Amino acid sequence: MCKSSEELYKWAVEESRLATPSQELEAKGGRGIFRRFFYYIPSKGVGAVDRSRQPKFKAEGTSLLHEFIDIGVEGTVLTRRAACHMCRHCWAGERRSCENIAYTGTPEELTIVREKEPVTSLSRVTRLQLDKAGLERAAGAEVGSNVCVETHNGEQTVPWVVGQVVEGMGTAGEGSPAFDASKDAIRFDSVRAGEAALRVQLWEPLEPGSTTFTISDVVVLVPARRVRVVGVELEALRQGTRRADSRTQRFSIAADSLQEIRAEMPTMDDEWEVEAVVQYRAYYRKEQYLIKWMGYGEDRNTWEPLEHLSDEVKEQAARVKERALAAGERTSACAGPASTGPGISGALAAC
């Protein structure tokens, strides 16, 4: 895994074993690879992509296609049998006028269909519990305090936001306007007329992936059931000797508040350190291990499959399994539901 664009370049040149194509496109007759492009997308910091909310897509027959172009239409891409990368029309984005269309093929639009994930009774119960807890939290949110609010399930980039309460919880007189991708940067769950809601002014990161915030001018109505953490503490950052204006003052989320947010709204970039492997069980013929996370209480323990654990933790898990089987403590699916704690981190292998 490359940690920087420099490392990616070095890997592509020295270690990928992918030679630079030596023939021109016409000589290749439209077959094979003409030019390779590598893109470095960081998992943290500026330009990061949150992988925890990426939807699952299904595109039939894509093995025969070698170019996919974003045309600004949600769920639709422009495809060709091969890429050109040469003519002036393609560099200008006019692929239908490509000078090498005999080799690349005619551009066609492809609709990407998102797979529908079945809604189980367990997921419904879990959502109801989250909504109930959200309402209880929102009721105690004071005007001027900061809250963490979960966004929409379909929001791919920002799973949660922090906002300053400008109107405490009350009954919405009318529903919130529908999401408009052309002008709305973040998609929130809609508020229905008569539903409990509160109005918040959003804290805005200085740039994508930044942990430094300034207060924005954006005020939104959010459903109270989506409130995940109340009383979020922000710490003002020093800005040299210059006196900061209240509108430009920069803040960061206090460590304790950030830990609480990550416990309620985990993402793939969060790092969770394993404190101990507590128990072993077979859950619907799948082996799982109950994990105690460093810095969190027993209520945050989660059941994880073996492949989610690092090599060091796997050794501890093997000993726990051996003791459980020897003592006849192997459990089944009827032994109780899995915990809905913080979840697994994409960086767990580094724990």
Description:
This protein has 351 residues and is α+β, with helices and mostly antiparallel strands. It has 3 domains: 5-40 and 57-114, no CATH class; 139-264, no CATH class; 274-350, OB fold (Dihydrolipoamide Acetyltransferase, E2P), CATH 2.40.50. It has 7 helices and 15 strands. A 7-stranded antiparallel beta sheet has the order 10-6-7-8-9-12-11. Strands 2-3-4 form a 3-stranded antiparallel beta sheet, with no helix packed on it. The chain has a 3-stranded antiparallel beta sheet with strand order 13-14-15. It is globular, with a radius of gyration of 25 Å. The relative contact order is 0.10.
Order of secondary-structure elements: HHEEEHHEEHEEEEEEEHEEEH
Could you tell me the mean pLDDT? 77
Total of helices? 7
Strand-residue proportion: 15-25%
Question: How widely separated are the two ends?
Answer: 16 Å
**Can you list the strand order of the major beta sheet?**
10-6-7-8-9-12-11
Count of DSSP strands: 15
Counting structural domains, the number is: 3
Proportion of helical residues: 10-25%
Describe the largest sheet. Answer: 7 strands, antiparallel
Shape estimate:
globular
Judged by helices, strands and strand pairing, the structural class is alpha+beta
Instruction: Give the C-alpha Rg.
Output: 25 Å
- Low-confidence stretches are 330-351
